[in-house]
Design goal:
With 355 residues, the chain is α/β, with parallel strands linked by helices. It contains twelve helices and 13 strands. The protein folds into two domains: 154 residues, Rossmann fold (3-Layer(aba) Sandwich); 141 residues, 3-Layer(aba) Sandwich (Rossmann fold).
């Protein structure tokens, strides 16, 4: 695959799936442009992750850890560019790959960890306002958020459905206004979407729930004492009480997001998908590197902040969200206009310009 692009990232029970998910989004865009793409890394312990590549016909090549050996693999494959997305790579990895003549894009979350690259991507909110010490061009901020086809497609379907539902509601009201005396029709008689009084909650803490927090947040929901129905996504099975369904990682996640009245999520890559879809979101964080996303989103009132623990304060916040549909909708509106969904096109343009 001479002149192709390699993507160096790992995914698994401990490292999670966030790096893979955003790299798959970029790979979809590159493949749509006729670029050969292969993944370099290890997806051990996550059948779901491996399936994401198989379904898209993306090759996976085992990658050595040592920078010089990885550079040798890049040379052997004849790659024109390499995308690096990992917190575990040695700082000299980018420099070793660049020495082969291949261009390097490093996807970072705040700190570049000393990695040398021709191009950097930090898709976090406000990244463009933060200082950056490394040489090289930087794509910074939510204009560059990488979203998968499945997420972009489900928003299009949802928008069409919502337009149809609003039209149907208007038609029903017009009929009632003809048949019933004026003043008898209220805005609450018919609601678009047909959502009931019991909030539907989705809980997801990364593709692998690497910190094992799903049971604690499920308990926090139950401790609110308020009605809800919940779907909890985690590969770690546990016994849940009440109106809670526990399911493994699923390709239906974007659809489940759009059906939810509230999502409880870790502040990883999933949060950008949620905001793009306009879903009311309450955030926790399970690793220090997620604070770069968590803090500005909570500070600016785009997502509700739960903190790192499912404690009494977090339970109180969840209770307010469950009880107040208006509050949930406020968060959904604030997030929905933040991301336009074309970030991956901008990143692909910049990356291909290096070749």
């Amino acid at each position: 695959m001479t002149g192709g692009i390699g993507i160096r990232c790992d995914a698994g029970v401990q490292s999670g799936l966030g790096h893979l998910v955003r790299c798959v989004a970029l790979a979809e865009e590159l493949c749509a442009r006729g670029v050969d793409v292969c993944f370099l890394g290890n997806l051990a312990g996550s059948p779901w992750a491996r399936t994401q590549l198989l379904e898209r016909g993306l090759p996976l090549v085992p990658a050595p850890d040592r920078p010089d050996r990885l550079a040798g693999l890049v040379r052997d494959l004849g790659l024109g560019a390499v995308v690096l997305d990992s917190y575990e790579l040695a700082p000299g990895t980018g420099a070793a790959i660049r020495a082969t003549g291949a261009a390097v894009l490093a996807i970072v979350d705040g700190d570049p960890l000393g990695q040398q690259a021709d191009l950097y991507l930090d898709q976090n909110l406000g990244a463009e306002l933060r200082p950056f010490a490394m040489a090289g061009e930087r794509l910074a901020g939510v204009r560059y958020v990488l979203l998968r086809d499945s997420v972009r497609d489900v928003r299009e379907v949802r928008e069409v459905r919502e337009v149809r539902e609003v039209r149907e509601v208007r038609e029903v009201r017009e009929v009632r206004e003809v048949r019933e005396p004026a003043g008898d029709v209220s805005a609450g008689d018919v609601s678009a979407g047909g959502r009931g009084a019991v909030p539907r909650v989705l809980c997801c803490f990364g593709g692998t729930d690497s910190a094992g927090v799903a049971p604690a947040w499920t308990r926090a929901l139950l401790d609110t004492g308020l009605p809800f129905s919940a779907t909890v996504i985690t590969p770690r099975k546990f016994r849940a009480e009440g109106p809670v369904s526990v399911i493994p990682p699923t390709d239906r996640l974007p659809q489940l997001m759009t059906e939810a009245d509230l999502v409880i999520s870790a502040a990883g890559s999933t949060v950008w998908e949620l905001l793009y879809l306009g879903v009311p979101t309450a955030l926790t964080w399970v690793a220090a590197n997620q604070l770069v996303g968590y803090e500005p989103l909570v500070r600016d009132g785009i997502a509700a902040g739960l903190g790192p623990e499912a404690d009494a304060a977090a339970t109180e916040t969840l209770a307010r969200l469950l009880a107040d549909a208006g509050l949930r909708e406020k968060y959904g509106r604030r997030g929905s206009g933040l991301i336009d969904g074309r970030g991956r096109e901008r990143v692909a343009d910049a990356l291909l310009a290096l070749l």
